[in-house]
Amino acid sequence: MNKDAIAYQVQRITQIPEPTLFAFVNGETANHVNKFHSSLPNYTPTPLVRLSKLASRLGISEILVKDESQRFDLNAFKVLGASYGIAKYLGKILKLNKDELTFSHIVAEKSKYEQITFVTATDGNHGRAVAWSANLLGCKSVVYLPKGASQARLDAIRKYGADASITTMNYDDTVLHAAQKAQAEGWILLQDTSWEGYEAVPTHIMQGYSTLITEYCQQQPDIWPTHVFVQAGVGSLAAGILARLCGLSDRPMPKFVVVEPQGAPCLFASKTHNKLFRVQGDLPTIMAGLACGEPSHLGWPLLKSAASGFLMCSDDVARRGMKVLGNPLTGDQRIISGESGAVTLGALFEILSNTDFLDIKQALNLTSASKVLLFSTEGDTDPEVYRDIVWR
């Protein structure tokens, strides 16, 4: 893989950012979020996979991967945000306090909200999560996908009762369309990005992602990462995880690395221009879940101030990650990871094994003592694409 496959920007973080930037996911909030998720039928924490043989091969101490392909039956992490976002909205209608925000308390009063329709735009995983959550809690849902979305992703959303369709627009314009339809039809917009005037729901969705760190702390109390790599579309997941890490004052802050596709690098471009920046065009990348042109207005200020690095990766980096995770060394566990889920492992693999990226390795201070936490955010959410890549 050539040197152009990964571009990077690194900044030295000398102190924890202004507390107001990460206060939306404090310890109390994270506990309430996890309590809600734990109340959902069939909830169980997703596996934390320790790839010891791969870490040894690459010359670092640990590689730990949260395998989100086993999140309920949804094959992706997005339901953590969508379910909590819907629950918070319904909880407000039902006048439930934080301790009452549980699945059983909400559905006990389903007759008061069952005519509500939630609408969203999605590259696939978020829309499926909204459809699943709305169906579980007894609401309706409408989901719009951007042009180029696969039939498999559309069918997966319709499976949960959503009125779903593919538009002729790119992702960002599809988000605008969903917002306009919400206003015209009286639907509730449940979008995992934010803009001026639309902040409450995206905040709840980012809070929902904090359960990933809560679970990690429960699953592996003895190994704390020196580095955390998180993929980004609009940056909501990355900001939600980073906010929780910033709030853990009893643990050292890991180096936090944001990973994006070359075809849709809105955060990398925002960092380059030192301001919120929208990437125009069709956003060509196989990483459908990360094909977003405009950063979340809520997430960007925190990522700008507290992320240690930004990586922009070619599609081949994601392909590498899928193949490595799907074909483990003897003694390591196999992880089925899709295009968006595997790019962080692909980036780590290339940085540590390819001398062309020695400058990135040194800039991020990846050494034999490094312990790296990754999130495989999706499984084979498009099975045909998955097979085509890993069999090729």
TrEMBL record:
Entry keywords, A to Z: Lyase, Pyridoxal phosphate
Keyword 4Fe-4S: no
GO terms of molecular function: diaminopropionate ammonia-lyase activity; pyridoxal phosphate binding
Ranges of residues in domain Tryptophan synthase beta chain-like PALP: 42-350
Annotated GO biological process: alpha-amino acid metabolic process
Classification via InterPro entries: DiNH2opropionate_NH3_lyase, TrpB-like_PALP, TrpB-like_PALP_sf
Essential cofactor(s): pyridoxal 5'-phosphate
Enzyme Commission number: 4.3.1.15
Enzyme class of the recorded protein, top EC level: lyase
Gene3D superfamilies: 3.40.50.1100
Protein name per its UniProtKB record: Diaminopropionate ammonia-lyase
Source lineage: Bacteria, Bacillati, Cyanobacteriota, Adonisia, Adonisia turfae
